[in-house]
Amino acid sequence: MTPALHFIRKEHYDEEEAHLGDRVCACCGRRIRDAPPLGDRGPPVLRARMPQPPGVRPGRVPERLQPPRQVQSLRWRHGLVARSIGRRAGSAVARPSPGANPTVETSDERNQSMNRKSSSRRGELLLNIAVVASALSAIYAVSNRIIERNGALVNAPPRVEAVEDWVTYGLQGHRMGPSNAPVTIVNFSDFTCPFCQTQAPVLRTVRSQFAGQVAVVFRHQPSQRNEVGRRAAVAVECAARADAFEPYHDLLFRHMDSLGTKSWTSIAHEAGVADTATFRTCMGDPTIHDTVDRDVAAASKLGAVVTPTLLINNIKALGYTDLDSLSMFVRAALDSRSVSQ
Question: What is the rounded CA–CA span in Å between residue 156 and residue 22?
Fold first, then answer.
């Protein structure tokens, strides 16, 4: 049987392998004991060793003859790093075709790469513009639907009910109009409600249209989660202590979009409150909340589930009431009052 030939190189038994006391074949990885040492730059050494055991196919090394796992792991890592560096170098360095000018080829490829990048950026920019345009179109469509829906709610007729103990609801609150007016409109409102903001000028018009015959009583109905609406109710109560309820009431609806950001004291100064220091002290008074809670409890007892809710004598109107409907209710209340007398 022909003995196997093994090539031993200096670089294949470095420090990690030398401490094992063995040498490793450069072609098959088998241990070769008692191999003669080589010089740093000497040629490969040819040494005859035992042939492979019977039953082992050529090219395969039995497990018991494999190099130690530390050496296998080291070789694997070195080979992986070398392959990775080779791939990176191959992808980074331009390889011109045989016979071509390397300088011209590299420049052309660089120009083509720059053109591809520029085209890709233009495509991304156009895609972003298309996405923004579609988003703006969607926002515009949703805004139109909201405007149409709000307009439908404003133009919808109010729900009307009769109330027996209607007189008690007008005994408390802030009255705007004569105390002996035959028609009293109790308005449960919220300063952050857009429909209440639309209802305010209608009530002012009815008061001027039926001068001396209609009085409006304002009562609070902020929602429990609406902190800005509750703070606005407290602020108008503090303004009422300075006899400036109505101007402060009008300014709150006028500045409704900036409520919570605009200073309550600056609105008080604009409404004609002279003693702003007392106003600020009132804003921190916890007892002022009792008045707001009293109105909220009255609204709950009345069944005012929406804002605004109007009580025109004994007629309860849930929701926004336009000028024609409100004038009709006032005339009906005046007619019933004259008949009863």
Answer: 98
Domain boundaries, the chain: 4-52+62-89, 102-155, 159-340
Q: Does domain 159-340 match CATH 3.40.50.2300?
A: no
pTM above threshold 0.85: no
Q: What is the rounded distance in angstroms from the CA atom of residue 115 to the CA atom of residue 104?
A: 16
Angstrom CA distances, 205 to 211, 216, 297, stand at: 10, 11, 29
Helices 245-254 and 227-241, packing angle to 10 deg: 150
Give the pLDDT of residue 302: 94
pLDDT attached to residue 324: 94
Sheet holding 159-162, edge to edge: 159-162, 315-318, 309-312, 183-189, 214-220, 174-176
Q: Quick check: helix, strand or coil at residue 159?
A: strand
- Listed in sequence order, the residues at least 6 apart from 6 whose beta carbon sits closer than 8 Å to its beta carbon are 25, 26, 27, 28, 30, 32, 46, 47, 49
Pairing of strands 183-189, 309-312: antiparallel
Look at residues 287, 299, 313 and name the one whose alpha carbon lies nearest to residue 196: 299
Please choose, from the candidates 5, 326, 315, the residue with its C-alpha nearest in 3D space to the C-alpha of residue 170: 315
Q: Alpha-carbon distance 105 to 94, whole Å? A: 8
Angle subtended at Cα 302 by Cα 300 and Cα 303, rounded to the nearest 5 degrees: 65
Q: Is the peptide bond before 308 cis (omega within 30 degrees of 0)?
A: yes
Q: What is the pLDDT of residue 293?
A: 94
Distance CA 183, CA 215 (A): 6
Pairing of strands 214-220, 183-189: parallel
Q: How far apart are CA 266 and CA 68, in angstroms?
A: 85
> For the chain, which ranges sit under pLDDT 50?
1-21, 34-35, 38-50, 91-94, 102-104, 147-149, 151-154
Q: Give the C-alpha separation, 26 to 28, whole Å.
A: 6
In terms of Cα–Cα distance, which of 184, 190, 179 is closest to 166? 184
